[in-house]
Amino acid sequence: GAVVSQHPSWVICKSGTSVKIECRSLDFQATTMFWYRQFPKQSLMLMATSNEGSKATYEQGVEKDKFLINHASLTLSTLTVTSAHPEDSSFYICSATGANTEAFFGQGTRLTVV
Amino acid sequence: AQSVTQPDIHITVSEGASLELRCNYSYGATPYLFWYVQSPGQGLQLLLKYFSGDTLVQGIKGFEAEFKRSQSSFNLRKPSVHWSDAAEYFCAVGGKPSGSRLTFGEGTQLTVNP
User: What is the pLDDT of residues A48-86, one digit of tens each?
Assistant: First the structure.
């Protein structure tokens, strides 16, 4: 299957700082990328949908000013957690889908805010 | 609104035993159904998918799933479980084969006893 690379795999940051997570489709053009958040022992919660060259569409309850999403190219989307706080600690997963491909998922990023 | 229910939060089976993980969905149009597997701290890997045609679909790692429209179900099965199958399994539904958001079930944690 197609490969989606997410980086970093884990990150620890201080409260108040910002963290950027990258999601790359390595062998296909990702017209749409999705960002999910997963709490321990829970399912994936969709945070936002981003289409290349457009503003992201955020799910209800997700602060767009806190979780900045950029999808500037067909192979890269980034999620920036701004002014991170301990409650933002979580597992973040991206998925990418192309015109004729189902969604492929990145490996996830474990964010810990201390 | 679309939804997915996985009634079993946790299932334990012995190695070599058969397995069935249940999935029920609610979707107003033609559903596109997926099963994913997630190992701890990892992203999601696609096991199989159903779009149309034969209602019994084969996937990777010896898994299969059967789509039953009358029961709104898409149960995952494996004839003989291996210890390496221990993981979290998610059923998901989407509105089209690619490019659409997925709605996930809560997941079923599979434990395999030796």
Answer: 999 888 889 999 999 999 999 998 888 999 999 999 999
Cβ pair A95:B44 closer than 8 A: yes
Q: Do B99 and A97 touch (CB under 8 A)?
A: yes
How much is the pLDDT for A48? 95
d(CA B100, CA A109): 22
Q: Average pLDDT of each block of 10 consecutive residues along chain B (114 residues)?
A: 92 97 91 93 91 92 96 97 97 81 93 95
Percent of chain B with pLDDT over 90: 79
SS3 content of chain B, % helix, strand, coil (to 5): 10, 50, 40
With a CB cutoff of 8 Å and minimum separation 6, the contacts of A97 are A30, A31, A32, A33, A34, A103, A104, B98, B99, B100
| Interchain proximity B99–A43, CB inside 8 Å | no
Probe site for chain A from B104, B110, B111 (most A CB atoms < 10 A): B104
Q: From the list A43, A49, A108, which residue is nearest B42 (CB)?
A: A108
Using CB atoms, pick whichever of A41, A93, A97 lies closest to residue B43: A93
Tally the residues of chain B. 114
